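Here is an idea for our session: we take a single protein and study its fold together. To get us started, please write out a protein record for me. Once you have written the record down, we can walk along the chain together.
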Amino acid sequence: MIAEDQSIVREGLVLVCESRDLQVVGQCADGMAALETIRSLQPDFALLDLHMPKLTGVEVVRKVRQSGIPTRCIILTISREESAIREAMQAGVDGYLLKDGPPRHLTDAISYIRDGGVYMSPLLRMAGVSPSSREADGGDALAHLSRREREVFFHLVNGMRAKEIANLLDISPKTVDTYRASLMRKLNIHDLVGLVKFAIEHKLTTT
């Protein structure tokens, strides 16, 4: 699914996707329509312009994550601002892609994310901008978590039990416990209270 308010750019993205055997199941010009389309179609991937009318790309990602929809979300933007990257990472994006990069970066991102990674445009690294180049904060720490680990993290800190998370994500409670142990080890946090405190301090939960 592609959400981009500039029709020329949106149609160009459609052509790029179709030329690489990626099926485009929906197109939107604003964030609210993007959110409704994701909820309705639950596509494998959503390409979201960072700055859209009604809802920004990051706001769409945040709402998708809160609802537990498994769609992988990639922010598409020209912004190299560290604050924009940090906000996107804290929202739970799977990729941050620059519009001025070559088309192959899109397929690279999809392949990398499908294998469980979080994709950052190589152009950011070339410019010396990436999560690893900043002091560690909540967004940086979450950048080291897999997509599933981040999903479990957000549901845990918002009060859900392992069994509820398992039902929502269609996995076993034992698998939820495995993800919880893994993400806590990566964050160097040893109990649920510490996890919630971390989320509150870094504004990663509204609960």
In short: Residues 130-138 have pLDDT under 50 and may be disordered. The longest helix spans residues 173-187. The longest strand covers residues 72-77.
